[in-house]
Specification:
five-stranded mixed β-sheet, alpha/beta, single chain, elongated
Length: about 170
């Protein structure tokens, strides 16, 4: 079973890498039903200019469309980063059976790290598996933000040099 779980998390990691390649925070997600991926998503908030374009929301939406209904009670969700409050709510509302996530999110993690929305008395509580391929997921995020900081620093330095050259 562990090999199959890792296979699906690797699929989510590939989507996260694709998001990073597009300049998005690298979060990827797949929804799996009966051993088949039925929904894929990646973070697209910057490219779509919309706060709702999280990987989980996209993957859940595609799974609902493919399966022809909003109840995903036979489905598992694999995501590289612990879901935020919005995505945790979507997981509850879609009746996801099991949530697998890689890296914890100390700033917005709503499945146990910052807050645990599953502990509230909602009508559904999925099983949660934390830390699946957690180091790989966390490293992708660390690398993205390290590169982003380096790029921003270079841009600031170039701006200062050009500004000074123009007498600003």
């Amino acid at each position: 079973m562990q090999g199959e779980q890792e296979k699906f998390m690797k699929a989510a990691l590939r989507l996260a890498q694709k998001a990073a390649d597009e300049g998005e925070v690298p979060v990827g997600c797949v929804v799996v039903c009966d051993g088949q991926i039925v929904g894929r998503g990646r973070n697209r908030r910057e490219t779509k200019k919309n706060a709702l374009h999280h990987a989980e929301i996209e993957a859940i939406g595609k799974a609902c469309k493919k399966l022809g209904g909003w109840r995903l009670h036979r489905c598992d969700l694999y995501v590289t980063l612990e879901p935020c409050p919005m995505c945790t709510g979507a997981i509850i509302n879609a009746r996801i059976r099991t949530l697998y996530y890689g890296a914890p999110d100390p700033k917005a993690g709503s499945c146990g790290t910052l807050v645990d929305l599953f502990s509230v008395g909602y009508n559904h509580k999925p099983e949660v598996v934390r830390g699946l391929m957690g180091e790989e997921c966390a490293e992708l995020l660390r690398r993205f933000f390290r590169d982003l900081r380096t790029r921003k620093k270079r841009e600031r330095e170039a701006w200062k040099e050009n500004g000074n050259a123009q007498g600003c």
